[in-house]
Structure formats: structure tokens, C-alpha cells
Amino acid sequence: MKTKRTVHIQSIDVNSVTFSSILSIGDTKKAHPTSRAIAVQQPSAVFNAHKEVTYADYPIFSRKPKWIQQSPSVQKNTFHHQPYIRTKNIFTIAVNGSSIFQLGSLQEVKADSRTKHIRKIRKHQNP
């Protein structure tokens, strides 16, 4: 049986948690964050609704993830000198894109983040 430990933290400073990310304080059984994004970089800030891109335009968004079916068996012996984990301060700029900031135990995680980056470059005209 796994020995539980308590987390003692004096302060946490997190600037932002975005795009299907999780800030979890305490024990968690399962976490399955998922994020889908299309990032378009172009020379102008004007968007044409008729030329917008969609997830259906790119096969990466419809593919099934290839999860590991069964974890390999690992034998491990751990001795905790203290029944707690103690820290004073935690400073984090960002938790982003289907990621997890976990303070406590986490039994199962399946995170899936898919981003398609598109860079549109303006064609140069000869003078």
C-alpha cells in the first residue's frame, strides 16, 4: 500500500492558467486535459471570415491518440523520511496547453495537446 504524504506550502504565485490546463491542490485520481488550437500568424490583423481555417482542414485534429495500453511492471521500494513535503514559496509564470500544475498525488494522467501553427507570408512585389 502506498504511504500518503501531506504537502505544506506557504504561498503559491501563479500568473496564468490557460487553454485546458489545470492547477490542482490536493490529491487527484484522474486528469485528462485536452487542448486543440490553430495559431495563424499573418502580416495584417485583418481576417476574412471566408478564408478562416477549421479543425477539419487538418488531419492532426481527427487522429486518435496512441495511448500506451498497459504500463510495464516496475518493482519499487520507497522510504519517506518525513510524512510531508514542505516548501516555502512556489512562483510560476504560466500553466498552458493541456498541462497540469499538481500539488498532491495524481494517479492517472492522459494529456493531449495539438496545435497547428500556420505562418502566412506576404509575397514581395518587384518595384
Automatic annotation (TrEMBL):
Protein name, UniProt field: Spore germination protein GerPE
InterPro entries, per database record: Spore_germ_GerPE (IPR024496)
